[in-house]
From TrEMBL:
SMART domains given in the database record: PlsC
Name of the protein in question: 1-acyl-sn-glycerol-3-phosphate acyltransferase
Pfam short name (any one): Acyltransferase
Keywords, alphabetical: Acyltransferase, Transferase
Organism of provenance: Paractinoplanes bogorensis
Domain Phospholipid/glycerol acyltransferase: 35-154
Lineage: Bacteria, Bacillati, Actinomycetota, Actinomycetes, Micromonosporales
């Protein structure tokens, strides 16, 4: 109930008025059945604008730190993400990360819409990075179609490290559904998982016009962090 209240009464109308979404291809989104929205990730605001545009309920995962913040800001963020059905994930890996994927899989098996950022983290510099194969495992286990979603300028609206977004028209593109049913007999095949993931990333590259980098964004962030001098600014991970 809180999800729909935020979307249609509290936040949705105000955000649409301020940011005047320029959305194309939304008709590609199936009205029923399990769907994975595979999005590039440029800004904290991506997880706000995408569910705002889609008529169906969208379930995302977000880093666990959003649910453990202190003070008023921490409480507000916790209430917002909990109320919108966002799932916390411990991105240190292992069983915690798998638990989040399992929850998204449950959403898909119930015929819902799961949102995921195949890059696994926000882009540190606006380029598109190598996708992680969790999205492919969801595809193979659920049989869901994948709708690629290109966010074109959310990094301009809310750059890394900023709290207050700039008032600017948000631009989004929804691609035609990708059907991977031809791989349904290949669950657990890591080569197939990589092929599915790379196909999704290729679509996101073509739709977004962003330069593609064949390394994991998380690895680049680790490198930047380890080579930065003390006190230097390092892109925050959201």
């Amino acid at each position: 109930m809180f999800y729909w209240l935020l979307k249609y009464v509290v936040l949705g109308p105000v955000l649409k008025l301020l940011f005047r979404p320029d959305v194309r291809g939304l008709s590609h989104l199936p009205r029923t059945g399990p769907v994975i929205l595979a999005c590039n990730h440029l800004s904290f605001s991506d997880s706000i604008f995408t569910p705002l545009i889609v008529d169906r309920r969208v379930t995302f995962v977000a880093k666990a730190e959003y649910f453990t913040g202190k003070g008023i800001k921490g409480w507000l963020m916790r209430q917002f993400f909990s109320g919108t059905g966002t799932i916390p994930v411990d991105r240190s890996g292992g069983k915690a990360a798998q638990a989040a994927l399992d929850t998204l899989l449950r959403v898909l098996r119930e015929g819902g819409v799961a949102g995921i950022y195949p890059e696994g983290t926000r882009s540190p510099d606006g380029r598109l990075y190598r996708g992680k194969t969790g999205v492919a495992r969801l595809v193979l286990e659920s049989g869901a179609v994948v709708v690629p979603v290109a966010l074109l300028n959310t990094d301009e609206i809310q750059p890394t490290g900023t709290l207050i977004p700039k008032i600017k028209r948000v631009r989004m593109r929804f691609g035609a559904p990708l059907d991977f049913s031809r791989y349904e007999a290949s669950k657990g095949d890591r080569f197939v998982e990589r092929a599915i993931t790379d196909e999704i990333m290729f679509e996101l590259m073509a739709m977004s016009g962003r330069e593609y980098v064949d390394v994991y964004a998380s690895k680049l962030k680790t490198t930047i962090s380890s080579t930065s001098p003390p006190g230097a600014s390092v892109p925050a991970d959201r």
